[in-house]
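thought: fold this chain, then report.
action: predict
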Amino acid sequence: ARYVFNAPTIWAHGMTQRIFAAYYFICGAYISLTGSHINMDIIYNRFTPRKRA
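observation:
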């Protein structure tokens, strides 16, 4: 429709937002369930053992 009528479809932007939101929530739930978050210990490792506790 975009190239035929020289205008994008009305619902494309909203549908894309909803799909990405669903993807975000589903993947977030899966990551929380499996405990597979990415940890970045760059700053944490610079602390002394006392400050880490």
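thought: worth noting. The chain has one domain: 2-52.
final: tokens above.
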